[in-house]
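Schema walk-through. Below, the input block comes first and the output block second. Nothing else is stored per chain. Lengths vary across the set, and this one has 237 residues.
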Amino acid sequence: MLFFSKKYSIAESGLLKGITDNHSHILPGVDDGADSLEKSLSIMSYLEGEGISELWLTPHIMEDVPNTSEALKERYDSFRKDYTGPIRLHLAAEYMIDTLYEERLEAHDILTHGEDVVLLETSANTPPVNLWDIVERTMREGYRPIMAHPERYCYMSPNDYKRLKEMGCLFQLNLPSIAGAYGEHVQRRAEDILAKGMYDMAGSDCHRLSFTEHYYRAAVLKAKTIAQLKELAAKVQ
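--- output ---
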């Protein structure tokens, strides 16, 4: 006889209640995330229902989406007037490691994720030619990098993850990654990094409500993984 262990969803586990979502694209009309105030407020309503306590709005800044800090601050101030719910909001940005990031870094024109911490990303499949130099330079300029969703960087090896951690980088897990949103390979990577205790925070990376809601409600996680996710949530509260 075959026995199947019960699988759980992120939503039904209670994991989301009281947590901080450290990565989202909900600020309306600034990148490839929510493209209207109505959609942003709909996402916020859903997150309220799931019990999210705090949310970081982290719009893209990259050569293809050259948002300025001042324009994002203005949009953020406007959104805070429009959103009157209980979730505490914060503004940062997700910086692609590219030439524009290097320019902003040199000018110290950075929307930080907390005090002197910067959320960085790379292409999922191709490493920046100067990845290690940029990480070191970011540190020299007085910022500590958070690597957004490192589980999605298919070019990285376990040794690369180890090197980044030894350099002082923080790791941010995309919760949909571990629920299978980006395929089994990324899911297995996320489980491995989580099991090794290398993540420092988590986030939805929410662009669209339908995507986030689907993977938050997908009953695909083992009890052990849910327990590890709760340990991570407890570590950062």
